[in-house]
Amino acid sequence: MTAFGFHAHDHAHCISTTLHRAEAYCAAHGLKFTPIRRRALEILLAEHRALGAYDLLAELAKDGLGTAPPVAYRALDFLTKAGFAHKIEGLNAYIACAHLGADHSPAFLICTECKSVAEAETQATQGRLGETARAVGFRINRTVIEALGVCPNCQDQPCA
Fold this sequence. Notes:
Layout: E1 3-4, H1 11-29, H2 35-46, H3 53-62, H4 69-81, E2 85-88, E3 93-96, E4 105-111, E5 117-122, H5 127-135, E6 145-149, H6 152-155
Parallel strand pairs: 4-6
Antiparallel strand pairs: 1-5, 2-3, 4-5
């Protein structure tokens, strides 16, 4: 299992590459990647932590892209349906997808200290959950796995 989000990387390259992938995906699938949708994804990519709709709206408003809540909610709806972002149910917030364009079942590792979120690849049909589902004749269509804990960066910080 690989987790993206807690380790140092070329963040500017990460953002640029993902935006280019999103643009190509939209062009190939006939989706409109409007300036608001693009900026919303860029804002989510700039953070490795989940942002609420109103946090996103505040950033969009700074750019003159709207101040009404539906602006943020429509952008987030598009991004999640296109597979460019995920909703973190436990936080009622959103994060950019680390595996843009891939059909996957992510698990989210959420730091309770700094609120950063890492996305890890999982297989819902594997492990104990998959075994339990098969044992009772249940077919898993979708999972939402969110684990709360402390990220490596916060573990390395001295206690206050």
